Amino acid sequence: MAQQLGGQPIIILKQGTTESRGQEAQNNNIAAAKAVAAAVRSTLGPKGMDKMLIDGIGDITITNDGVTILKEMDIEHPAAKMMVEIAKTQDAEVGDGTTSSVIIGGELLKNAEGLLAQSVHPTVIAEGYQMASAKSLEILDKIAITVKPTDTGILKKIAETALTGKNAEVEKEHLCDIIVKAVISVIDAEGKADLAHINVEKKVGGSVDDSILVKGMAIDKERAHPEMPKSVKNAKILLLNAPLEFKKTEVNATIKISTVGQAQAFLESEQHMVEAMVDKVIKSGANVLFCQKGIDDVAQHYLAKANILAIRRVKKSDCENLSRATGGNIVNSVDAITAKDLGTAGLVEERKVSGGEMIFVSECRNPKAVSIIVKGGTEHSVDELERAIHDALMVVSVVVEGKKVVAGGGAPEIELALRLREYAQTIGGRAQLAIETFASSMEVIPRALAENAGLDAIDMLVDLRAAHEAGKKTYGVNCDTGKPADMIKLGVVEPLRVKTQAISSAAEVAVMILRIDDIIAAQKSAGPAGGGMPPGMMG
After folding, report:
1. What percent of the chain has pLDDT over 90?
2. pLDDT above 60 for 262
3. What is the CATH T-level fold of the domain 216-366, as seen in this structure?
4. HEC readout, 322-384
5. How far apart are CA 225 and CA 462, in angstroms?
6. Which is nearest to 47 in space by CA: 416, 480, 349?
7. Degrees (nearest 5) of the Cα angle 282, 285, 287?
8. Which end of the chain is more exposed for a tag (fewer CB within 10 A), N or C?
9. Contact 452/49 with Cβ under 8 angstroms?
């Protein structure tokens, strides 16, 4: 970037900085965004394929989850990174629809290229896209169906739609049942379900249908001492956030011992202090103890003698969930223990699960925290199962909160395309072109669903448009028969929020990328090993 002034070039940017401007910059960014969308496109839908990702240290991930694929891919290009952000936001907000949001974003940019080629100004396209995005949310709200959070039938269908196409579909019935029960258990007074209260533990061994829901907590720990009881019925549970061990002095003190008797007395007084602490636990009437801190050997001995099942160094989050499951309070000091703070559970026991010990706190009266134990034959399948279950838990909790669902299978996108084309004609001007382009971009979802199922995408789109023009708003792609079908009847439903979030974030990113007309990249600084690029050799 040198300006000529009286025959003297003035250098503004540092040597090694590269710049691309105008159309070149836009094409560069759009190409990167399209590449990201293409990377996940084949994973969409019930017949989507999986990706195998191998990272720098040779770890393998096999997944169908859009956001996981994009996180694992080492993406360099700044515009491509923005596309990955859409997926991350989608995952954090609603848990599912990560692939859809990225594909829509990519398609919006791809179609914008055609408009740019017809010399429509980027700000006109951006304005049209923003209008279309706002209108889409209105249209979706109108076609959404309201559901009651108590309607477990619909909730199961929603979980099922989220699991379909992932490796979890083999045991869909069983898993959907677990997922819906788990979410319903943790709904609070305001009608929200916080997934932090559902503890998902994964164990390799057995098969998917060995996965279970524990009405209470399953904690990956074992009892502190082998002499302690393995199972306790009608448990009275103490949750303690204080160590059961001899307190060391705060200041550095030297104790001079001159006779044998003094040494003995000193050791005994240490023991008495610990014994007094354990006594307070016993007096409260507790027969199970979960301690966030340490329990020393002497204390373990006394607790085992008193027939108390104790677990030490329990995670803070586990302790909080135990409190919700058993109704007990977390006590922060040994002196403050009272019988009122104890929680209850029908059974606390140590069980062997896939070769490791776990503590199960089950048969709780009204647990506001539950656990799901996910099992599968290999580590990779358990990891993918956990990702699928996370998506399904998220969508069910989103419906419980938002209470609105739409049909799946590309039905809402086809309906949007139709309605947006009608809307574009009322707008006129150049923005009309952008809105029509936005409408066409919506059709990428049913098209990708059809392609991934090995169907003819063009025939499918023609049939779907005809069905929607005839007023069949819930008709989408039936990947099994290859014909349009009523998605609601087939039980393919998704939360409204999954769709609105995907469309609004895809439109935002597309607009942001379109408005960039200049890319100025500084030279990469040399890494610690001096591995920088020579000037002018920007990647």
Report:
1. 17
2. yes
3. GroEL (3.50.7)
4. HHHHHCCCEECCHHHCCHHHCEEEEEEEEEEECCEEEEEEECCCCCCCEEEEEEECCHHHHHH
5. 69
6. 480
7. 80
8. C
9. yes
Rounded Cα distance between 488 and 480, Å, is 16
Convert the pLDDT of each residue in 202-223 to its tens digit: 888 877 777 888 887 888 888 8
- In this prediction, residue 443 has a pLDDT band, given cuts at 50, 70 and 90, of very high
Residue 205, Cβ density class (10 Å: 0-12 exposed, 13-18 middle, ≥19 buried): middle
Sign of the C-alpha dihedral computed for residues 68, 50, 499 and 439 taken in this order: positive
Q: Phi, psi (5° rounding) for residue 54?
A: -120, 120
CATH fold of the domain at 148-210+372-402: GROEL; domain 2 (3.30.260)
Q: What is the CATH number of domain 20-146+407-519?
A: 1.10.560.10
Predicted confidence (pLDDT) at residue 439 exceeds the cutoff of 90: yes
Which residues, including other chains, have CB under 8 Å from residue 462's CB and lie 6 or more apart?
none
Torsion, CA 21, CA 24, CA 29, CA 30, rounded to 10: 140
Q: What is the DSSP letter of 94?
A: T
Please list the active-site residues: 65, 98-99, 391
Is the pLDDT at 326 greater than 90? The verdict is no
Distance CA 82, CA 145 (A): 32
Q: Which position has the token pair 């919506």?
A: 442
CB 82 within 8 A of CB 512: yes
Structural domain boundaries in the chain: 20-146+407-519, 148-210+372-402, 216-366
Closest of 250, 245, 249 to residue 292, by C-alpha = 245
Among the listed residues 231, 154, 155, the one whose alpha carbon sits nearest the alpha carbon of residue 193:
155
- Vertex 463: Cα angle to 459 and 465 (nearest 5): 115
Split at pLDDT 50, 70, 90, the class of 530 is very low
Nearest to 334 by CA among 383, 386, 376, 293: 293
